[in-house]
Amino acid sequence: MEEALARYRTPEIFNTDHGSQFTSTDFIKVLDAREIKISMDGHGAWRDNLVVERLWRTIKHEEVYLRAYASLAEARAGIGRYLNFYNTRRPHSSLDGKTPDHAYFNHPMPEVADA
């Protein structure tokens, strides 16, 4: 965490769960010294991360595991393209076969879903 704080902009809030590494005195002192507010999710609350965990599972199985990225830049670009596909062209069963863009923003449905 200290390396990240040294390299990047200091956040206003640090969100985490109740894991012992995040509730230790040493960890809290680092955040307090930088006046970073602490937000902790419920201990063991699986539902806190359910949507994000499902999204990352889909990204890994439909994009990451199928590619052999040569660099971090290539991985970022590939995942970025996939997220564009995921939102604009990939039908979702939970949205009655609509894309998120169509379901939430009323964008027109694509003719063919391709990656």
From TrEMBL:
Pfam families, A to Z: rve_3
Domain of life: Bacteria
Taxonomic source organism: Ketogulonicigenium robustum
Protein name stated in the entry: Putative transposase protein
Cross-referenced SUPFAM superfamilies: Ribonuclease H-like
Chain segments annotated as transmembrane: none
GO molecular function: nucleic acid binding
GO terms for biological process, alphabetical: DNA integration
Domain Integrase catalytic span(s) in chain numbering: 1-108
Organism phylogeny: Bacteria, Pseudomonadati, Pseudomonadota, Alphaproteobacteria, Rhodobacterales
Database matches in InterPro entries: Integrase_cat-core, RNaseH-like_sf, RNaseH_sf, Transposase_IS3/IS150/IS904
